[in-house]
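Sample 3 of the quickstart, ligand nicotinamide-adenine-dinucleotide:
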Amino acid sequence: MKPTVTLVPGDGIGPSITAATVRVLEAAGAAVAWDRHVAGVAAVEEHQLHTPLPDETLDSVRRHGVMLKGPLTTPVGVGFRSINVALRKEFDLYANVRPARTLMAGGRYEDIDLVLIRENTEGLYVGVEHYIGMGDDPHAAAESVMLVTRYGIDRILRYAFEYAMANGREKVTLAHKANILKFTQGLFVEEGRKIAEEYTGRVDYDERIIDAAAMQLVLNPYQFDVLVMENMFGDILSDLMAGLVGGLGMAPSGNIGKDAAMFEPVHGSAPDLVGQGIANPTAMILAGCLMLDHIGQPEVAARVRGALDTALAAGEGLTPDLGGSGTTDGFAEAVLRTLDSQPGS
Ligand code: NAD
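Result:
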């Protein structure tokens, strides 16, 4: 029986890159039954639902445990809070896995192949913050709480080591700021050293202070392999790493929990591109590949990645963000044409 995957096309460019992705995955032989649902602005405005995160969508993820999702718009300042954050919380998707791999030659760097693993549920992003009033200024100061637990740190570090083992990776680097944040970040270093000992001889371990890691990722990214870090540091450095391989249009992400997983592009709904049909579907297709790896169809994922590599190398149908003048559908066609020449076809 085909596994069922909850499919949420998302907002803005989401529906067009999702349609392109489904075509490519199915043509490559993905054995998946899609359970289509809505969330975000699409749920409220197009489907006139009262919530951006309908129960039907949540129930589908609860039932099937896997979701492929396009980007969702979060209104700025007003309206509902981020649905992405709500989904990560609801399903305790604690590990955010963000691979950055060179897909097109001729960029600033060649042959980048890095994976950043970001803690997804703790740290400053728990959103515990408040203003402190002084005199007649109610916003004279503000305070945010960085909350971490040994439990949360332990499980993300273990995830990084297990990921390295399962994916033939040699080294895990913990990026931290324990020189300044001696407690919240010190706990990462304490746990990191302890867990690293359990993997001695199987996975190498080293540490970098986060600001030095940012500089070294630009100067010599090849010294890294798997990087692991707390939530906000991971948010920032994973965008830096997307920049090493050509930008947000090339970067997928997996949000993994014990009982559910959600795969999505790193980029947002790109309101500036809506209706033009020129969004790059690569990150969404790669998110589909991560999903296929997760549900035990890595050979199909490899065929799709191979087809993407070939199409990008040939420079056929490239979208404007990659220097071409192609369209979302045109690029999907180019990928489909190269599928037949991939091993295993
Ligand atoms: P964005 O990622 O949507 O866009 C940033 C820039 O990248 C824009 O110039 C856009 O045109 C370009 N871009 C993004 N995806 C592209 C693609 N596939 N092909 C070509 N160019 C692409 O970021 P933003 O403008 O800050 O956010 C827009 C909306 O998306 C906001 O509501 C934000 O909250 C939301 N968002 C959602 C997610 C998510 O669902 N995981 C992530 C980030 C932002």
